[in-house]
Amino acid sequence: MHRRLLIVLVPLAVLLVTALGVPLSVTVAEREMQETYVDRLNDVGRFASLAETALSSGRSEALQRELSRYHDLYGIPVAVIDSSGTVLLGPQDAYQEAARDEPALPRIMTAALAGARPEPSGEWAPWDDSALVVAEPVGRDSEVVGAVVTISDLSKTRHRILVRWAQLAGLGLLPLVALVAVAWPVSAWVLRPVRELDAASSRISQGDLTIRADAEAGPAELRRLAESFNTMMDAVENAVQRQRAFVSDASHQLRNPLTSLRLAVESLEPHLRAADSGRQVYDIAVDELKAMQRLLNSLQASARMESIRTASPVELDAVLATRVERWRALTATAGQTLAVEVPPGLRLLEPTGGLGSILDELISNALRLSGARLVEVTARVTDAGDEVMIAVRDDGQGIDAAERAQALRRFWRAPRHQNVTGTGLGLAICADLVGAAGGELRLEDGLPRPDGSGHGFAAVVTLPVVPPD
């Protein structure tokens, strides 16, 4: 999380440093180039003054030697040219070689021979490879007899500019490094309670209501948030515990009176005649008492299953190894066939209450309610690779699409199953437990019926994959 915070802060700091550094870098480059131009301008001005004296007196040997020494010392060819452009003094070969690559030279020479001080060539920016051409007229006004021209290679100047730019870049990196060095631990400290809250929420979503956040670390605002979170979880856990305790206690307390009532009603059977109208009332009362006992058993089983707090990893092979033989025996007794096609090595998150109990309920529904001939259990990893899909399909009656949404509600039963043993809690409880483990229980069309009249019933469970240890 703090990485994302740095991703936001560092680009802003880079933009700030760039906004300050780019104008400063341009100013540094312009100053270096300007200093170079002023130096060359001073040099040609001095040589122009000497050339005017040398040409008027006819004594040019000293100037020739000085121009040659200047070239040897700085590597810059300096030439004195006449009005026709002929080199009168200076290193002629070096000057002509440098002049061949300078297209701005004729314009500058023309302006200098006309008695004006020309502007330097316009391509002498630090990112351009052209040379700096500077000219100075020899003489004044109508008495101009020539010009002094220098052609300066700016590679050293550009090198100095690059060095200065590198220094500025290094200085600009210092605040960025300092920002990262300070922001990393600070953001980790600030966001640690948030990460702990996220981890706690994840554990809570898996059914563990005992998790609490650390309310002693981090900024004051996050400590208050953690305290509020813990207070909320205390209230939620207490409410859930009271709810489960009520269901368990109520079903337990009702069991004994209901058993006594059933015994009392059944004790009346010897006193009833076969043709007596009371026999029908007696049978109805016994059936209702049995249904109420099954309901109490289901409520107690639900309370026990939901009391298990957390989901845990499990091998699907281990779950099936304890169940498949019993399923085969039950289906064989009912005259049905069980087919199990599950690849080995599937590891998934087991819901609270146990994956085996959920599969038992789905198989029981297929045996009791569908009237199927074939019950099929399959499993595979989804295309995304992050979930395992377990499907229990049959080729029996099935239920309509409109009834599937209601089938996952507690105590709902299809109209045609009202006289079949059951409470209407099984699928609803299984759906809640699977959802609490991060999965989903959905109802679909099952296998095709043998008579071709449609499809049977399918309950598909998807649960998160757990990577191998």
Q: Could you please describe the fold and organization of this structure?
A:
The structure is a single chain. The chain has 469 residues and is α+β, with helices and mostly antiparallel strands. It is 56% helix and 15% strand. It has helices at residues 2-57, 61-74, 92-99, 105-113, 155-205, 220-266, 278-307, 316-321, 324-333, 355-369, 401-407, 426-436; strands spanning 78-82, 87-89, 132-138, 146-152, 312-315, 337-341, 347-350, 374-381, 387-394, 440-448, 455-464. Strand 1 (78-82) and strand 2 (87-89) form a beta hairpin. The radius of gyration is 48 Å and the shape is rod-shaped. The two termini are 26 Å apart. The mean pLDDT is 80.
Separation, N- and C-terminal Cα atoms: 26 Å
Q: How helical, in percent, are the residues?
A: 55-70%
Individual helix count? 12
- What is the CATH homology-level superfamily of the largest domain? PAS domain
Arithmetic mean pLDDT:
80
Rg, Å, rounded: 48 Å
Q: β content, as a range? A: 5-15%
| CATH-scheme architecture of the largest domain | 2-Layer Sandwich
What is the CATH fold-level name of the largest domain? Beta-Lactamase
SSE layout:
Layout: H1 2-57, H2 61-74, E1 78-82, E2 87-89, H3 92-99, H4 105-113, E3 132-138, E4 146-152, H5 155-205, H6 220-266, H7 278-307, E5 312-315, H8 316-321, H9 324-333, E6 337-341, E7 347-350, H10 355-369, E8 374-381, E9 387-394, H11 401-407, H12 426-436, E10 440-448, E11 455-464
Helix pairs in contact: 1-2, 1-5, 5-6, 6-7
